[in-house]
Predict the 3D structure of the following.
Amino acid sequence: MNTSIFQSAVLSRRAFGRGAVGIAALGVPVLHAQSSNRIVLGQSAAFTGAAAQLGIQFHAGAKLFFDRHNAQSNVRQRIEIDQLDDGYEPDRCAENTQRLLNNDVFALFGYIGTPTSVVALPLATKASAPFIAPFTGAMSLRQPFNRLAFHLRASYHDETELIVRNLHNLGLNRVAVFYQNDSYGRAGLDGVNAALTVRGLQPVATATVERNTVDVAQAVSTINAANPQAVVQISAYRSCAAYIRAARKAGYGGSFYNVSFVGTQALADELGKDGAGVVVSQVVPNPYSSTKPISREFRDAIAEGGNKVQPNFSSMEGYLAAKLLTEGMRRAGSKLTRDSLIAGLESLSDYSLGGFSVSLGPRDHVASSFVELSMLTGDGKVKT
């Protein structure tokens, strides 16, 4: 988003107020219990609970692409997802992941969230299973480098840098942080702190909420007392919506900014008219726009599939993740193994997914650093 345009949008809002080493690791080709005509991916994600829409929408977008791919007459192997519900809880995710690996899924795909991905990645590493496109921007999953982990999206540091830069450009330097009390929230807080520090600033207040809860009263009291001009939120949609409503009810008149993991459409749906002016950073193209070919392709695929998938940023990310993975498989050659998939993904240098640029390499497994800002309009829509 152009900064001047975004500034006018915000300012006009004073209407608004911005165990062992696996065989694959040894280089021996193996097709972990996949049949000759199908590849099975494993996904543990939130399909129930306070973050359910994140898993539901990401999975729907990914399945939309895979279904379209599988319907092609020349496809040699169908791609399927074995999905398990973890409710966005790490212990359940660890159990699910071990179960999936015991079932010899080919790779782990589309895990939702930092606290869950943090427990899953070591299990994937131990089993030499690729860990593809987790729905998280935490640096702890990217550094140190892990040959098995591939990330589609930009990092939370990228998102929070853009948020703080725009706040700073608008002269809004009294910034508070409301964050989830776990590895996700701390990853976002670290990003905000880093961006503020570069500008000689620090948060005027911080406060937390527990994962999968909406108990925000103490956080509202703490942050409102500091009188910030803007609150950066690092949590999921239900707790962020609860915070926004409670803060406004308590008299707060400043701006709210969220990172992409909040679940933009879910947040818009949760807030309704109370969402007007809430800002969310995005790491994938606008699914409602016709500017990029990938957005048109995505909406065409939804229409062809009978309009069963809701077009939103979360389902768009699932669709893009599936498209990236499938291209990596195509480049892996006729004999698909975990090692050949890794090589195929690493060959995606400066590759365009319908106008969304990605680039991977042998020492770079983060495909994109794309970030832009969007704003909720209060009628269920999102503008970028």
User: Anything to note?
Assistant: The longest helix spans residues 52-70. The chain has twelve helices and 14 strands.
